[in-house]
Amino acid sequence: MPESPEVQALAEFLGDRLTGRRVDGVDLIEFRALKTRARPLTQLVGAEVVGASRVGKHVDLRLTGANLVVSLGRHGWMRWSDEAPAAPDPEAPPALAAFVFDDGGVLEATDAGDWVSLGLSVVDDALEVPAIAKLGPDPADDAFTRADFDKAVAGRRKQIKAILQEQESLSGIGNAYSDEILHAAKVSPVAHAAALDDAALDRVFAQTLDVVRGAIAARRGIPIDQLKAAKTAAMRVHGRAGEPCPVCGDTIREFTFASTTAEYCPTCQTGGVEL
């Protein structure tokens, strides 16, 4: 699932590459990807890109007359080609929509999942997208404070990993970075926030900032088709079940709960107890 560091790098790439470019044509290949049926993608033809930004795990591509919000979902991404490909790559994720620009470049919205998770919305303001309107504060934002963190986390009778992934509480963090934050903070993924003492909350707050902002800095400038691989390579515990913990050497374990999984180190995070 794309999370804020990779989506930030994607938004910066799109802003740099497309600002000043005009949309010459659009092709909606998978109709389920369009979430604003009253505002088709054809409304964007002739519009000029004026900028791009990240909002949580979404990209807001701003054009003259409208915004295109790309909600990446679980398996969505964007693919750029300097010119129209001669034929689709059978090994690549399928395109759900394509946008042709006046310099010949093609931007494709893709989805690698078995079901359509990516969404496209043509709106006047990104806040018209329901998922964006209810987003919580973003730890990557310079304005994010300890008070924002405490309001989202402190005293809640809910597992801390679930809170970190809850977009209405803290935006931009998903399964992978929540694992990384909690490992760095030495906190169990299943601990309830209300049960954490002040020292543990201090660590989770500090590592939320360090992990998210550090990853954004590390992903900046990486080609967008290499961001997933860069994210995977940078993980210390997420996706590393069965490997040694880089801190203590214990074996990283995987724990499945609800509809998600967590990777953690028993020695570092759960007092040696396997979940």
UniProtKB/TrEMBL annotation:
<comment type="similarity">
    <text>Belongs to the FPG family.</text>
</comment>
<dbReference type="InterPro" id="IPR000214">
    <property type="entry name" value="Znf_DNA_glyclase/AP_lyase"/>
</dbReference>
<keyword id="KW-0326">Glycosidase</keyword>
<keyword id="KW-0234">DNA repair</keyword>
<dbReference type="Pfam" id="PF06827">
    <property type="entry name" value="zf-FPG_IleRS"/>
</dbReference>
<keyword id="KW-0862">Zinc</keyword>
<keyword id="KW-0511">Multifunctional enzyme</keyword>
<dbReference type="Pfam" id="PF06831">
    <property type="entry name" value="H2TH"/>
</dbReference>
<feature type="domain" description="FPG-type">
    <location>
        <begin position="236"/>
        <end position="270"/>
    </location>
</feature>
<keyword id="KW-0456">Lyase</keyword>
<dbReference type="Pfam" id="PF01149">
    <property type="entry name" value="Fapy_DNA_glyco"/>
</dbReference>
<feature type="domain" description="Formamidopyrimidine-DNA glycosylase catalytic">
    <location>
        <begin position="2"/>
        <end position="116"/>
    </location>
</feature>
<dbReference type="InterPro" id="IPR015886">
    <property type="entry name" value="H2TH_FPG"/>
</dbReference>
<dbReference type="InterPro" id="IPR010663">
    <property type="entry name" value="Znf_FPG/IleRS"/>
</dbReference>
<keyword id="KW-0227">DNA damage</keyword>
<keyword id="KW-0238">DNA-binding</keyword>
<keyword id="KW-0863">Zinc-finger</keyword>
<dbReference type="InterPro" id="IPR012319">
    <property type="entry name" value="FPG_cat"/>
</dbReference>
<keyword id="KW-0378">Hydrolase</keyword>
<protein>
    <submittedName>
        <fullName>DNA-formamidopyrimidine glycosylase family protein</fullName>
    </submittedName>
</protein>
<keyword id="KW-0479">Metal-binding</keyword>
<dbReference type="InterPro" id="IPR035937">
    <property type="entry name" value="FPG_N"/>
</dbReference>
<dbReference type="InterPro" id="IPR010979">
    <property type="entry name" value="Ribosomal_uS13-like_H2TH"/>
</dbReference>
